[in-house]
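Subject: Sanity check before I submit

Could someone independently write out the structure tokens for this chain? I want to compare against mine line by line before I put it in a report. The sequence has 93 residues.
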Amino acid sequence: MHWDKLILRSYVGTDGRRRLYQEGSVAAMRPPTELFKLYCGGLLPAGTAMFCGTLAVHGGITPSQTFEMELEDPVLRRRITHSYRVKTLPDQG
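---
Independent answer below. Compare away.
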């Protein structure tokens, strides 16, 4: 398998403008075992969940009206995509 060639990419959209938000190789991400080691020295304790980050964002963390993501395989020339709209709820103070 050529997993190290896979590319993750995301886009955000605000006011009809779409821009690249994240992009990078799957190989650039830390493997879960490394994250576990950094967090607790090895295996996660029973009943623990870890929420992890992804690739660095371009231009800082940004709220958006839409979010698109894709996983591209440039070797086999195919990709998986998904997108969704974001509904911002009013601030209840």
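---
OP: Matches mine. For the report I'm noting this point. Strands lie at 7-14, 17-25, 66-73, 78-85.
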